[in-house]
Amino acid sequence: MAATLTAPAPAAPAAASRARRDRWRGRWAERWPLLPLLAIVALPALPSPAAGTGGGPEIGPADLASAVAVLVCAGRLLYLRRRPLTAVAALVLGLPAAGFAVAAVTAADPVAALPGLVRYLQVFVLVPAAVCLLLKDARDFRIVAGALVVLAAVQGVVGVHQYATGTGASYMGEEVRAVGTFGPSDIMGMATVVAYGLLAAAACALRAPRDAPVWLRPCAAAVAAALAVPLALSFSRGVWIATAAALLVVLALTGRRQALTTLAVLGATGVVLVGGFGIGSDMIAERAASVTQVARAPDRSVSDRYAMWSAAGAMWRERPAAGVGLKGFSAHRDSHASIGLSSGSDTAGAGQAFRRQPLLSPHNMYLLVLSEQGLIGLTAVVGSWAAILTGAVRRLVLARARDHAAVDCGLAAVALMAWQTVDFLYADIGGPTSVLTGVVLGLAAWWALAEPEKAAVAA
Fold it and tell me: Is it the case that residue 1 has pLDDT exceeding 50?
């Protein structure tokens, strides 16, 4: 008598589905500490009640997210004892705090300097350290860098729409300046985030991750090229210069052949966008030409900047060691500035009425630190940044020579750090994007100061 065979229940698909869910949950269980960092990147574009008013601390949603990130780091260190900073990383990232403390203590009014101390510690010490601690490997780095690209794309679309419809900030009598959701009171906000995203996308286009799909590299190149449009329409000369310098630095580190090819493509793209389609060609050409005229025929904004730079130098000469104290530039400005300094800059457009904004900083981070913190503060801050940039370049050269998988992270870190150091020649911290500066410094510091096997080998 033949035995009846019963087929077993099809358990393989269910088991495979459960395995996929477990892997997905495992990945998110490992990546959840990145959520505060992603919030820091996403939230600066939201309106901030105090942004641009010139009075009171500029506390926005991104600042609250940065506080959450620091608390998450503190909890992981205290209760889980996860990944403390190395001695070198702690020294490099903590060095600026010494200069900030000296400037706060020696200020004429230490209580008034306290908000400045908190802001400086947040942007230049706590947030970079939090980024270093929360990034586990190169994949985490790419997630945060990808968030910068997404933010840049969103702001770029808004900025191009503002130019096309005449709803941007006022520029040369027309409301065509692309400012994104930051408004005319933070004229550099959109340009800054677009530059960050452009550089991160360009790094991926120059060297995509090994396990990336084949379409990622051309898509990254297309995104970087597209972001050049809102960057141009921001009419921000300092950001243009910083972006060009950062791109030249990373191109020089990728090899001669790839550098020449990329420069040719960038030149052709610029000719097509400006010459072929005429995207802001007249205004962009005039704005670009003004870069070479600042010495012999400066406009009002450049004249005011020169006057504030001179005032910062005078403050430093008066107190060379520790400066006039944190948040002291605005209080000492009138007694040190020339009579040619105007009372403020005019802003209007993008849904905002005409407003006269006071000039409360020299628009040069190095001179701001020198005037408020003296040689002590400048040495500490610039020393820390120089160590991060030097370490990032060195790690990138080693990773490229050994053909490591995370070269794209190194290119992004070097590009962002180079951009920041050049941009600080024409700008300083202020507004909702200040906290993003801390994220950028943290990304560069993670690449430069993390253990070699985690920074250069992890894919």
Answer: no
DSSP letter (8 states) at residue 102: H
Taking 50 as the threshold, does the pLDDT of residue 53 lie above it?
no
Calculate the alpha carbon distances from 307 to 1, 365, 378 in Å: 106, 15, 21
- Residue 209 phi/psi, 5-degree rounding, is -60, 150
Longest CA span, the chain: 113
pLDDT of residue 309: 87
- Segment 156-171, tens digit of pLDDT: 999 999 998 988 887 7
Q: In what order do the strands lie in the sheet with 174-177?
A: 174-177, 169-171, 344-349, 352-358
Q: Are strands 174-177 and 344-349 parallel, antiparallel or unpaired?
A: unpaired
Q: How far apart are CA 72 and CA 79, in angstroms?
A: 10
Distance of CA 47 to the CA centre of its chain: 18
Give residue 30's Cα distance to chain centre. Answer: 25
pTM of the model: 0.86
Q: State the DSSP string of 54-89.
A: SSS----HHHHHHHHHHHHHHHIIIII---PPPHHH
- Across the range 124-131, mean pLDDT stands at 95
Please give the share of the chain, as a percent, with pLDDT higher than 90: 42
125 alpha carbon, distance to own chain's centre: 15
**C-alpha dist (Å) from residue 244 to 154, 324, 358, 368, 386:** 22, 34, 30, 24, 20
Query: Is the pLDDT assigned to residue 392 strictly greater than 60?
Result: yes
Residue 428's alpha-carbon distances to 68, 206, 423, in angstroms, are 24, 29, 8
